[in-house]
Amino acid sequence: MVSQLRDACAIIIGNTSTSEAKVAYHTENELQGRTCNPWDLTRTAGGSSGGEAAAIACGMSAGGIGSDGGGSIRVPASFCGIAGLKPTPGTIPGTGHYPPCAGPFSLIGVVGPMARTVEDLQLLLEITSGYDPGDPTSLPARPSIQKARSKKKVRIGFYEDDGYNSPTREVRAAVQTAADVLSENGFEVEPFRPEGLGRVRELWFTIFVEAIAMVLKETTYRREDEISNNTKEFLALAAEQPPLTGERLLYTLLERDTWRSQIFAQMEQLPILLAPVCSTPAFLHQDAGWGPSHAADYVRTMSYSQHYNLLGNPAATVPVTKTVEGLPIGVQVIGRPYKEEEVLAVAGILEHLVANKIEKSQ
Q: What φ, ψ does residue 301 adopt, rounded to 5°?
């Protein structure tokens, strides 16, 4: 990834902080400490790519790279008021990512761009996409990526609630605002929530929490007192589940593909979806964690992003509104696999329309 960026004359400033082993939506680790939200230092910048989002939001860089196995690009982008893209798996090679983009992560995780504008996401996508032998899931660059300028106005569905964890009033309002401004500008927009999201979330949990925990336990050689509290919680949550047998994993993978086919078929009529990124704006540092003892329990608050990792849809975060306290709220623009050009085209239009709306209101 860094080599590709250097070859395109990018100036590499440095690397940014993440959560340990990328298994948290809150960026804090033993090496670099805690990453705060630029809009409110008492709140998280999100995770796992929280350092990247905070740096971009502060103007330290024009853009950067994150990775996303359950919302780790889209959530920090929403919390920090920037744009982020989770591409279709295989679009951008994950060569050099740590932990390696292999096994469970290769099924649901991707590397993707983060930036202040959708146009910059497009630029970074063009530079970094394409086949690389270091990532066996990577694909040749597609010509359509080079032209994310959709001329026809695709039909759009939107939903504010996934039926599992109701979002805050302000998050709902952000999705409704996105739907309204697109409708007012000629798009056909209608309420629509894909069937089966509840089961999709459960299958994501099996792969991300249970399977990745098995890999982490095999590769975590540090002493117990050196592992972060968040990683300990993650491993403890996985240990509470029934044993992940080969049979159960096999049926998880088979059912995953069944749901992918069914939901992709549903999206043929509504190729773009709008949805929350997560159920809340940026939460307080002390509220973060795995399990119901935390006010911002990751399993519940982040389900809106987790669905599309299991399904493999490309999804972009676009900042749309702010809370009364001034915290940014982004909205997901979700497309069909390998249709990044449609996602970025709608995301760019939404970004432009929201900016115009804000300017007129001032």
A: -70, -25
CA dist., res. 136 & res. 116, Å (int): 30
Q: CA nearest 273: which of 207, 195, 200, 201?
A: 195
Which are the contacts of 358, defined by CB distance < 8 A and separation ≥ 6? none
Query: 280-292 pLDDT, tens per residue?
Result: 999 999 999 999 9
pTM of the model: 0.95
Peptide bond into 19 cis (omega under 30): no
Query: Residue 148 and residue 227: Cα distance in Å, rounded?
Result: 43
CA separation, residue 134 to residues 130, 195, 221, 243, 293 (Å): 12, 36, 25, 32, 40
On whether the CB atoms of residues 210 and 241 are closer than 8 A, the answer is yes
177-234, pLDDT tens digit by residue?
Answer: 999 999 999 999 999 999 999 999 999 999 999 999 998 877 665 667 778 888 999 9
User: Where exactly are the structural domains of the chain?
Assistant: 2-361
SS (H, E, C) 184-250: HCCCCEEECCCCCHHHHHHHHHHHHHHHHHHHHHHHCCCCHHHCCHHHHHHHHHHHCCCCCCHHHHH
For 2-361, CATH number out of 3.40.50.10860, 3.30.420.10, 3.20.20.70, 3.90.1300.10 equals: 3.90.1300.10
| Cβ atoms of residues 112 and 85 within 8 Å | yes
Which helix (H) or strand (E) segment holds residue 296: the answer is: strand 296-297
Tell me, what DSSP letter sits at residue 295?
A: T
Pairing relationship of beta strands 40-44 and 272-276 according to DSSP bridges: unpaired
* Structure-token pair, residue 296: 């911002």
